[in-house]
Amino acid sequence: MRKLIMGIVEFREKMLPQYAEQFSKIALAQTADTLFVTCSDSRVVPDLLASTHPGDLFTMRNVGNLIPPATPEGDSTGDLSEASAIEYAVLFLKVANIVVCGHSECGAMKALYARNPKLKAPNLDKWLCHASSAAFRLEYEGPLNDKLKPHDQLSQLNVLVQLEHLMTYPIVRQQVTAGALVLSGWWFDIASGNMYAYERASRSFEVIDRALAERLAARLVSRAR
């Protein structure tokens, strides 16, 4: 806790002068164009990984980067927090992108893969049910990348499942169909520091190097026309 407190002081004394103008501009409203859904894991730092600044990302974090699916009427089948964030991002911020970002060595995915009833964490156990279809796919359909550890294989499949859950929300589905919203699946490898994007053509997560970044950006431009 002391490190956290002293970090606040260091930011105030050294970094705040650099961001003062930025904070002044965004003080009354935010104009984020992306909802970034990722895990609560302390090793995943969206603004650091994407070189973004205050006001750039509307971020939703939870254990396992999960999104409870919606009913046909658009009501969440799980916690209301995630559904509320989706509604706010799509209806009020009118984001053009939603990214679901999983990561390596995810504790939630390890727990789901182990299926250990002795954990004595009933709330976590219930929460992880929103990733159960990813575990089913891993067992019966196999991984996207068989070179990864089993829990990392599960983590990648989980990203795809959560994208499907997003599409159960009518407001998301409508915007995607209209071409006003793009859904993307990313996966962060902590050990290497590399971010990967899911590519449907290759059915795999490919590292976001400059070449892939330019292709992804070009697609966004073409969809916006």
Give a description of the structure.
The chain contains nine helices and six strands. The chain has 225 residues and is an alpha/beta fold. It has a single domain (32-224), classed as Carbonic anhydrase (Beta-carbonic Anhydrase, Chain A), CATH 3.40.1050.
| Low-pLDDT regions | none
* Number of domain modules: 1
Q: Give the CATH topology.
A: Beta-carbonic Anhydrase, Chain A
Please describe the biggest sheet, giving its number of strands, its sense, and whether it closes into a barrel.
Answer: 6 strands, mixed
> Briefly, what CATH class?
Alpha Beta
The CATH architecture can be named as 3-Layer(aba) Sandwich
Widest β-sheet, arrangement of strands:
2-1-3-4-5-6
- Give the SSE order as H and E letters: HEHEHEHHHHHEEEH
Distance between the termini: 49 Å
GO molecular function, one term: zinc ion binding
InterPro entries: Beta_CA_cladeB (IPR045066), Carbonic_anhydrase (IPR001765), Carbonic_anhydrase_CS (IPR015892), Carbonic_anhydrase_sf (IPR036874)
Protein name: Carbonic anhydrase
Catalytic activity: hydrogencarbonate + H(+) = CO2 + H2O
In short:
The protein has 225 residues and is of the alpha/beta class.
Descriptive key words:
225 residues; alpha/beta; Beta-carbonic Anhydrase, Chain A; 9 helices; 47% helix; zinc ion binding; Beta_CA_cladeB; carbonate dehydratase activity
List the helices and strands and how they pair.
Elements lengths: L1 H25 L7 E6 L6 H4 L7 E6 L17 H13 L4 E7 L3 H8 L7 H6 L4 H9 L9 H17 L3 H8 L4 E8 L4 E6 L4 E4 L2 H15 L1
Parallel strand pairs: 1-2, 1-3, 3-4
Antiparallel strand pairs: 4-5, 5-6
Helix pairs in contact: 4-7, 6-7
